[in-house]
Amino acid sequence: MQIARIIEISKFKDQEVTIQGWLYNKRSSGKLRFLQIRDGSGTIQAVVFKGDVSDPVFQVCDELTQESSVVVSGIVAADKRSSLGFELQVRDIQIQQIAKEYPISPKEHGTAFLMDHRHLWLRSSKQHTILKVRHALIRASRDFFDGQGFTLVDAPIFTPAACEGTTTLFETDYFGEKAYLTQSGQLYMEAAAMAVGKAYCFGPTFRAEKSKTRRHLTEFWMIEPEVAYMDLDGDMDLAENFVAFIVQRVLESCQEELKVLERDITILEKIKTPFPRISYDEAVKIIHDKGLEFEYGNDFGAPDETAISENFDTPILVHRYPAAIKAFYMKKDPADQTKALCVDMLAPEGVGEIIGGGQREDDLDVLLAGIKKHNLPVEAFNWYLDLRKYGSVPHSGFGLGIERTVGWITGITHVRETIPFPRMMQRLTP
RNA sequence: UGGGGCGUAGCAUAGUUGGCAAUGCGCCUGGCUGUUAACCAGGAUACCGUAGGUUCAAGUCCUACCGCCCCAGCCA
Known about the structure:
Elements: E1 2-3, E2 16-29, E3 32-38, E4 43-49, H1 55-63, E5 69-78, E6 86-97, H2 111-116, H3 118-121, H4 125-146, E7 151-152, E8 158-159, E9 171-174, E10 177-181, H5 186-196, E11 198-206, E12 219-228, H6 232-253, H7 255-260, H8 265-269, E13 277-279, H9 280-289, H10 302-309, E14 316-319, E15 332-333, E16 336-340, E17 342-347, E18 352-359, H11 364-373, H12 382-389, E19 395-401, H13 402-410
Parallel strand pairs: 1-2, 4-6, 7-11, 13-14
Antiparallel strand pairs: 2-3, 2-5, 3-4, 5-6, 8-10, 9-10, 11-12, 12-19, 14-17, 15-16, 17-18, 18-19
The protein binds one RNA strand through strand 2, strand 3, strand 4, helix 2 and strand 12.
């Protein structure tokens, strides 16, 4: 007997197959039993007619509880009444395990309850669909960089000091010394770029900020490319090509998923390069023209980002922020020393920042002065300064937050649903 | 860390001027040969977030505490 996955059930029309899965829901009608079986690839209705199976097999249907694991064999039959187009005419059922009373019923629940049962909630169609899109997006990201000659270089998780010094870090005891969980792989990618030319990393990053918004996690995943001999313009080219590529790939490979998530894909279909590029000064003008209160020189808040991005229906690149509000490693604009050669990508629909990056300071003395100005411990950055002693070159890169990007593409407004097991200020379990 | 909101059965909620704690889902029992979050009949299930207080009487009023949600700051 062939074992079939539901996603490719059409290949087995009129054949007898076995489905290995779980009971999602069931209904009954006299001598008929309707079992909704899911196997992780899809859901199919298995129809059990009393005349087609032995009495014990028919009785088993009434013992099955929600999420019981079952192996069901039957004939794959085309049926117009099925949303899948096919249903299974059951011949045999084997119980793997009868589930205890399942906490998540197919009705409404609150987010807190569902998050407490995140390990089970992942089985529900919407959540498992989001995971599929996340996977597609990660695979597209790797394909993009791999296809352009980048080398994947893994960055460490334990780090001796802050990368940026501005944000709060998680501190750990490292054999009697202090170590911190990384907040970015960037500094290590700069070293990697000097070794391989084009490097990227993909891994978890940690921020101990006490943020409780729908855009924040304490543990999130970033993909961070870094390229030697690339300036800010090249960085913006790379960023927009990358984002356009992954959106296109998700549109192609996740049509069903986006339908389940009820995502309006016409918005995503409009995404084409080049993206609008506006300077910080121009962005401030947009905010002021809309009558919002904003002090020139500050960083943008969430409402400011929304105001800027709602003028456009694709992501936009905002460049050259005031150097004073940016990290020490940002190179200053030769045309205006008060500005940094940095760029943020703001996604439309009020999603906000999904990319932050820019051109790095490549001059040893300027960088050293920056470290001191930010009151960072110079010793911890000696290895990083070496990169400016031994064949320093202009170089640029950026970091893209996976969860925010998945949220934007799927239309899920809270990042806690775009990562399998979110870590937030108020949540460490499951 | 500020501003706002919410804690009642396994889940989602209602609960009026303080007076026997209710409804839907899920669960259990039974019925139906085409159900689509099926339907019909019956049944079980509550330390009303915690601790005090006011009162003849508190889910309801008062005080403190705990937990959660939303928004903001910080950021990807």
